[in-house]
Amino acid sequence: MQRTWPVLVAAFGATYTFSIGNVTAPRLGPDLGADRGEVALVLAGFAVTFAAGLIPAGRLGDRYGRRLLLAFGLVAVALTAALAAAAPGLWWLVAARVLQGAASAIVMPQTLAIIQTSGSGAAQARGLAAFTASSGAGTVAGQVAGGLVMGLSLPWAGWRGAVLTSAIPAVVALLGVRRLRAAPPSGAERPDLGGALRAAIPLLALVAGLSLGPATDWPWWTLALVAFGVLGLWGFWLNQRRREPAGRPVLVAPSSLRPPALRIGLSMTVLLFAGYGAFSYEYSMFTQVGLGLTPVGSGLGLAAFAGAFVLAGLRMPRITARFGDRTMEVAAGLLAAGLVVLGLASWVGHGRGAAVWIGCFQVIGLLLGAAQASQYGPLVATVMAAVPHRVAGLAGGLFTTAQQASLALGIATIGGIPGTLAPSLGWERAFAAGLGVQVVTTVLFWALARRLRGSDTRHAPDGNDPSTTSLSLSENNQ
Fold it and tell me: DSSP character for 289?
């Protein structure tokens, strides 16, 4: 745990950088003279290269060494943060965020892979719990710290100062990278560069379409991008299925996806992060537009949620020791209950003001944050424990790709519900309607968690990687 602190800081920084883009977006229009669609390009520029680069970066880490790739990515994150903060205009900022997304994609899968391969049993459980807490804290910290920096009346504050803060975690993590164990590369197979392109281009199209669609009212070309992305990814999968039996290099070996835990875990990842992406987007819109809060007030409103998430993430081994294989089911049930209560409070509290709603949210947010962390932590362990250590970078890339694409999917689909219904229902009741859809995704997550518990998913597929049990982080596989 002590030796892997740079990895935890790097994981915090990767999600912090993503979150900073969301909280600064409302200020870009007035400062850069950009309309809603152009501001969406800034967000999409980061999201598309982040999502598209995760799997290739994970494989490169497996092939050439994860510490080397991590150091390179951290340097790139810091430099691109400075480029983005110094942007004289919109298109400079878009280009900088595109590069920063690619840099963050290099960092993220290495963090998960290094933690997964740094120990076993209780040590690995503590590492995964710390990863859950740090990466989740980065997401919320981006909203809180970004809002605070933008509220400062200082030179280079505002959105430029907020964007520049994303370099701080990268620099801190870089200072400790040399302390990490320099494990030798775990694969001799040459990279499948053609497969990387076949995966990256459709992913770029899919995430771009999902990111730009809501901001541009879904013109035909955004739908075409989504369709091209889906068909392109299907073609990529068919290509990989042909290449693997022939003994040719592959980016994602179909055989690596055979473990039921990995397939079910990735499906659960889509549901969890589609719901969370929608919630975070709806919360920002509701509090800033519907309730009239400043970015600082909106960010501070998440304090209870964030604190509960971090605390539950750090105590995940104890939580899973208490609930065992039922941890994710219990957490999903609690999250669904919390969403229902928040929805009822928003519906009944219509017209009673921001102070009343924020007060209710501080109480309910404790339950939501703890439940969210108790889904996220065991889910990370499920996906990572389902593959051998030699392809841990691939598993990290798959998990984070599913996470990022699902965040965009949730924003594009569920996230637009409150804004659509607000003119007729009012913001409080429109927000409650959006929460109702998230209850459905949470129930589906619960059903898959129940199915996962009933399947034979406890061992890594090749039998030579003793690793943490997928759902019980406090025990060793035997």
Answer: I
pLDDT value of residue 383: 77
Per-residue DSSP letter, 246 = T
What confidence tier does 400 reach under pLDDT thresholds 50, 70, 90? confident
Q: What is the pLDDT of residues 323-347, one digit of tens each?
A: 988 999 999 999 999 999 999 999 9
- Please, what is the average pLDDT of the chain? 81
Q: Can you tell me whether residue 461 is helix, strand or coil?
A: coil
Q: Which of 468, 312, 465, 442 is nearest to 377 (CA)?
A: 312
Q: Is 122 exposed, middle or buried (0-12, 13-18, 19+ CB in 10 A)?
A: middle
472: pLDDT strictly greater than 50: no
Residue 288 has what DSSP assignment?
I
Distance CA(242)–CA(348), nearest Å, equals 57
What DSSP line would sit under 379-445, residue for residue?
HHHHHHHTS-GGGHHHHHHHHHHHHHHHHHHHHHTGGGHHHHHHHHH-HHHHHHHHHHHHHHHHHHH
Query: Is the Cβ–Cβ distance between 57 and 10 less than 8 Å?
Result: no
Rounded CA-CA distance 458/467 in Å is 9
